[in-house]
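User: I've been trying to design a sequence by hand for this structure and keep getting stuck. Would you show me what you'd pick, starting by listing the structure so we're on the same page?

Assistant: Good idea, let's start from the same input. This is the structure you sent:
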């Protein structure tokens, strides 16, 4: 289940969202040659990834920040940037450029600390922007719970696009992080589910003051959970009239 777009256009150019996507892509391309070099990749992870055991001992703290701009492969990068592309612009609309940048970084750092708390003795390097992006999802859920999101669903040979409210898509995503986090061993590597869940919760809490200043429940009542501007709906392509003349069949 992947989101492919939302019906919630931003009202200003999301320069910070574009900049974060560009930074992540450029860092990935710069580190791509090391993916085929085990020794070089080990040096990269040792210098810039988040290693929970090191943070627990009081060193390697810079990894909390630098790990947010590293990715382990193309699918890892594309998946994260897709979520940021879809949901980041609206949060930047709400917070402004600088406010959104600070929000994003705070959510990412908080998500890293939650991961450290879940696996304090782990020596497995952790990389990815998903903790910070999870914070964006948490904030989006609070502000636009009924915004429409198109998701691509596939199961074996069934491929469909469904339009669902944001609360359904983001709520299911958050629940899956909690369930998988409870079932998986956080010290064993793999997906950092607790970083995702922690980032989501932190993003929700960081957005709470903005929501309360605009009336809290009253804000929801006024907007009914929808974007406070007209939603964007994909229109079917227009079919122009053919210039070829119609020739009617004559009856004999």
């Amino acid at each position: 289940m992947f989101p492919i777009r939302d019906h919630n256009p931003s009202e200003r150019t999301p320069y910070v969202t574009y900049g974060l996507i560009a930074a992540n892509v450029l860092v990935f391309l710069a580190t791509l040659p090391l993916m085929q070099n085990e020794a070089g990749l080990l040096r990269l992870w040792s210098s810039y990834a988040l290693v929970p055991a090191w943070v627990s001992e009081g060193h390697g703290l810079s990894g909390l920040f630098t790990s947010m701009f590293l990715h382990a492969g193309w699918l890892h990068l594309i998946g994260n940037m897709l979520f940021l592309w879809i949901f980041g612009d609206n949060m930047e609309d709400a917070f402004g450029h600088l406010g959104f940048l600070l929000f994003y970084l705070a959510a990412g750092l908080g998500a890293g600390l939650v991961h450290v708390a879940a696996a304090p003795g782990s020596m497995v390097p952790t990389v990815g922007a998903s903790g910070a992006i999870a914070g964006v999802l948490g904030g989006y859920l609070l502000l636009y719970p009924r915004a429409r999101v198109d998701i691509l669903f596939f199961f074996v040979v069934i491929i469909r696009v469904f339009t669902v409210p944001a609360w359904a898509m983001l709520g299911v995503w958050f629940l899956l992080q909690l369930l998988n986090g409870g079932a998986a061993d956080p010290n064993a590597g793999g997906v950092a589910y607790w970083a995702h869940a922690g980032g989501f919760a932190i993003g929700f809490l960081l957005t709470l003051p903005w929501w309360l200043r605009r009336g809290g429940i009253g804000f929801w009542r006024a907007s009914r959970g929808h974007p406070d501007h007209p939603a964007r709906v994909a229109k079917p392509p227009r079919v122009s009239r053919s210039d070829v003349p119609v020739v009617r069949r004559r009856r004999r």
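That's my pick for every position. To get oriented when you compare it with your attempt: The radius of gyration is 22 Å. DSSP finds ten helices and three strands in the chain.
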